[in-house]
Design goal:
Layout (H helix, E strand, L loop, with lengths): L1 H22 L18 E6 L6 E6 L10 E3 L3 H6 L7 E6 L2 E11 L3
Parallel strand pairs: 2-3
Antiparallel strand pairs: 1-2, 1-5, 4-5
């Protein structure tokens, strides 16, 4: 029974990865605007009411790792940041309420 559950879970993960690969678009094929936050960018933000800045890298669902500050572009924070610009503020709905973040900087690897 345990091995069957593990095999079933692994099979589901394989299906998810195959679908992601089948529908992926290479970033090199996409036009880039350096002033707009895009997938793969590292973004420096400051939550409203805080003096400390935080950095997050926008990643795909399969790459997201909060322990390394990689957030999914489909998460509330990631989707709010996507398409924003430095100097703008975004509102993120969290379980504890809405948090506003000011976008301070965008870093893009070449």
């Amino acid at each position: 029974p345990l091995i069957e559950v593990t095999l079933r879970d692994t099979t589901r993960e394989v299906v998810v990865v195959r679908l992601a690969l089948a529908t992926a678009t290479p970033l090199e094929d996409e036009p880039h605007d350096p002033t707009v936050i895009e997938f793969g960018d590292t973004v420096t933000v400051r939550p409203s009411g805080s003096a400390e800045a935080e950095q997050f890298t926008l990643a795909g669902e399969l790459e997201a790792r909060l322990d390394e500050s990689w957030v999914s572009v489909r998460s509330p924070l990631g989707s709010a940041l996507l398409g924003s610009r430095a100097g703008e503020s975004v509102d993120v709905e969290n379980p504890g309420g809405i948090v506003s973040y000011e976008v301070l900087a965008i870093t893009r690897l070449p």
